[in-house]
Specification:
single chain, 533 residues, mainly alpha, 75% helix
């Protein structure tokens, strides 16, 4: 055990030392595992032939994983919506909904943050977009800089917890394997599987509740200290109509319903729902840009706009036809009714394909398609490179006896299982200052989750707690990622100290929400049990 502990400790020291030294995480993990295995084999403590298992591990973990196929599609959906200025439309128009309420602009920023979180799931893009568009407006209307900055940072991090979050997709994949492994260790060879849909359902109540707590805090501040967040005066010019607000609000809302609803209703797997999201995002982006170009008088765009709009309708028609008729058209189901529905489905599919082609044409003309594809490839490549590096790291960690070391350490922590859970939460919180969520999920979860989940800990509850923990660390000074994102786009009059002061109340709210979910696991487990029972 002593030798194993030394090897495992050195493995982590080398890995994190190289990360802090500026080496990319994927190469740091794989490199640390390789060189530590070389050194250990030199002293006769490791069988170097273990590396022969690396190709099969990578193939099984990354290349043949249907759940992770959803990740590039969700990333594509988020990048499309970010590049197409859907966020800009939301922020511009939603600010008029609650602007005359106490702290109305702050509340509208939180609403938009929640919608963008659910439709894009990209924290950096959300914080930057709201920082560029909302922060100057809030300051112009007399908002205290710290409150404005805190509202934007906190709202931007909602993408960590509100589904369909990319964090939850990665967590769902890792927790599924860890839970099955943990249950086999204790003799349960047929446990109920944990899916990404379970985590999505489990995060709904905590995520929406957290957004409501943010808005409640802003409303209270608006009532008690109106000078910090004054409502917009009634006589200011306001040409925004309800129709404009609905046009800005409905597209991302319908996209969220299509993606989340299909998963929670069991109609589609996360991968299929991600495909729906990417398709819907592409159509929404094409529709917005074609309408904008048509308004500027450019030829051909009104027709493209109509084609794309028809394709959006077809997306919702197809699942309805599938639910009311058997479209397989085998001999047993050939009836007049099914044939009519089949013909309608073929027509809707044709319209959808034509609309997608029109949307792609619009994006190409606007020179947006190349940027969308490049950004999607960059983020996806980063995620899967880290996954491959973490897979190699995990293999060597287990070969060094790391599982036994972690189990022994967990057993020494006071408080039993819940004491170990608190310790893991603190570890994740601290690592969130230095590592991205992808790195934490792929490095820490395969190591600690199998040990934690051997007890009566519910895996969905555990996953939601980890997601909330990561969100808190993204907000916490001085290293929170959201703070750096906002600092990069904030005007000079907003000091770094203002940003730090502004997020402190939201961190307190976040910790309160975490403790509530920790104390009442049913907040995370009730909805999955109702939907999937």
């Amino acid at each position: 055990m002593a030798t194993d502990a030394i090897l495992v400790s050195l493995l982590f020291i080398v890995a994190f030392g190289t990360v802090l030294g500026g080496i990319p995480v994927a190469f740091a993990l794989a490199g640390a595992a390789f060189w530590m295995s070389v050194i250990a084999s030199f002293f006769g403590l490791f069988d170097f032939s273990t590396f022969a298992a690396v190709p099969s591990r990578i193939y099984g973990t990354a290349m043949f994983n249907e759940v992770l196929t959803a990740v590039p599609l969700f990333i594509l959906m988020g990048v499309i919506l970010e590049r197409s200025k859907v966020a800009e439309d939301l922020l511009t128009n939603m600010g008029h909904v609650a602007r005359r309420l106490p702290a109305g602009l702050g509340i509208s920023v939180t609403l938009v943050g929640a919608l963008l979180a659910a439709s894009t799931g990209i924290v950096g893009a959300t914080v930057v977009a709201m920082g560029l568009l909302s922060l100057p407006t809030m300051l112009k209307h007399g908002y205290k800089p710290s409150l404005a900055a805190g509202s934007i940072c906190a709202s931007g991090t909602l993408g960590q917890i509100i589904p369909p979050s990319i964090v939850l997709v990665f967590l769902g994949d890792q927790l599924s394997g860890a839970y099955m492994e943990a249950q086999r260790e204790i003799g349960n060879f047929s446990p109920d599987p944990v899916s990404v849909g379970d985590l999505f359902a489990g995060a709904m109540i905590p995520g929406i509740g957290l957004a409501c707590l943010y808005m409640l805090y802003q409303l209270i501040i608006g009532i008690l200290r109106p000078q910090d967040c004054p409502p917009v005066v009634a006589d200011e010019e306001d040409n925004t109509s309800m129709q404009q607000i609905l046009v800005a609000l409905l597209p991302p809302l319908l996209l969220i319903i299509a993606v989340l609803g299909s998963i929670l209703a069991g109609v589609a797997t996360p991968t299929e729902a991600a495909g729906v999201g990417a398709t819907g995002g592409l159509l929404l982006a094409g529709l917005r840009m074609s309408r904008q170009d048509a308004a500027e008088g450019q030829q051909g765009y009104p027709l493209l706009s109509k084609l794309i709009g028809s394709a959006i309708v077809a997306i919702f028609v197809l699942p309805v036809l599938r639910s009311v008729a058997d479209l397989r058209m085998t001999l047993e189901v050939v009836t007049t009714y099914n044939m009519i529905c089949f013909a309608l489905a073929v027509a809707a599919s044709t319209v959808l394909i034509i609309g997608l082609a029109a949307a792609l044409l619009v994006l190409m003309r606007r020179k947006q398609l190349d940027q969308i594809v490049q950004n999607t490839m960059k983020v996806s490549t980063l995620a899967f490179a880290i996954l491959i590096g973490a897979t190699i790291f995990s293999l060597i960690f287990r070969s060094f006896g790391g599982e036994h070391v972690v189990t022994h350490v967990m057993e020494q922590i006071p408080g039993g299982t819940y004491g170990a859970l608190i310790a893991v939460s603190l570890l994740v919180f601290v690592l969130g200052f230095f590592l991205d969520f992808i790195e934490i999920v792929f490095i820490i979860m395969p190591i600690v989750a199998p040990v934690i989940l051997q007890s009566d800990i519910n895996p969905v509850w555990f996953g939601v707690l980890i997601a909330m923990n990561l969100q808190t660390s993204f907000l916490t000074p001085p290293f929170g990622f959201a703070l750096f994102y906002l600092r990069g786009v904030a005007p000079p009059e907003v000091k770094t100290a203002d940003i730090y002061r502004g997020v402190l109340p939201f961190i307190a709210i976040q910790i309160f929400a975490f403790l509530v979910v920790f104390s009442f696991p049913a907040l995370a487990t009730w909805l999955p049990s109702v939907i999937y029972r």
